[in-house]
Amino acid sequence: MNSIAPISSLAETLHNRLGGEIGAEDIDDLKLGMYTIKRRSEGLLQFAKSYRMINKVDQPDFQAIQLIQMFEDVYQLFEPTLLQKGIDMDIILKDTRMLLKADRNLIEQVLINLVLNAIEAVKHTEGAYISISGILRDDRVLVQVSDNGMGMSADIQEQIFTPFFTTRKSGTGVGLTLSKQIMLMHNGNIYVDSLEGKGSTFTLTF
Question: Are the CB atoms for 120 and 145 separated by under 8 Å?
C-alpha cells in the first residue's frame, strides 16, 4: 500500500504533463517517471512475494547497492507528492560512491515506509523538511531518514516497533514492524531518536 500511493501520484503527474505542450525536457522527465514506475512496480511485485505474513519475509538477496542511486530513486518516486505538499527533501551523502551490501527491494521498502511516515509527521510544520543520508561510521554504514515534524513522546517511541501499534487513524501498525524485521534479517537494526515538536530521526544500521 505504501508503494502504490506514490506510484499512483507519479502516474497522475505524468498524465497531466501530457495534457500540455511537450518539449525535449518534458520527454526526458516522462521517460524517467515511467522508468521509476516500472522499476518500483517490479520491486513491489517482488516484495509482495516476500510479504507472506509479518514474521515470514524471504531471506534477503544480498547485492552491492549504490546508496546514491537508491536514494535518488526513492526521491523520484515521491517528488510529485513532495512538490504538492510543499515539502523540501534533501539527499545527504558525502561519498557518492558509498556501497551497501543488502537486498535492494527490501531496504527500499523500508525507506519508503520511513519517508511516508516523515511526510505525515511534517504535514502541519512550517518549512517542512525531510532528509535521507548515508554515513560511514567505524566501518559500518548508517542510513538515516530525518524530519522536522511533530516528533514523538518517549512512551510512543518505546512502542512504535510493536506489531499493529499506530498513532494514525488510517495506519495499520505494520510498516515499522516489518522494517524492523527486514533490518534484523540484514544483521542490522533500526532505531528512532525523537523530540516532541522538534522532529524525528530513524537510523538503519548495517
Answer: no
Pairwise CA distance, residues 95 & 75, whole Å: 18
Provide the b/e sequence for 164-175 (b: ≥16 CB within 10 Å).
eeeeeeeeebbb
Domains, the chain, in order of start with CATH, read 60-205 (3.30.565.10)
Which CA distances in Å does 30 have to 24, 42, 44, 162?
10, 18, 21, 40
Phi, psi angle pair for 35, to nearest 5°? -65, -40
Q: Are the CB atoms for 144 and 201 separated by under 8 Å?
A: yes
Q: Which pLDDT belongs to residue 52?
A: 56
Residue pair 38/14 in contact (Cβ under 8 Å)? The answer is: no
How far is C-alpha 51 from the geometric centre of its chain's CA atoms?
A: 17
**Is the distance from CB of 177 to CB of 161 less than 8 angstroms?**
yes
* pLDDT tens, position by position, 2-46: 778 888 888 998 888 888 778 888 888 888 889 888 888 888 877
Angle of helix 24-50 versus helix 104-121 axis, rounded to 10 = 110
Spatial contact of 194 and 157, defined as CB atoms under 8 Å apart: yes
The C-alpha cell at 19 is: 495534457
Q: Give the pLDDT of residue 163.
A: 66
88-93 β-sheet, strand order: 88-93, 129-137, 140-147, 199-205, 189-195
Q: What is the DSSP letter of 152?
A: -
Residue type, 64: A
Distance of CA 132 to the CA centre of its chain: 9
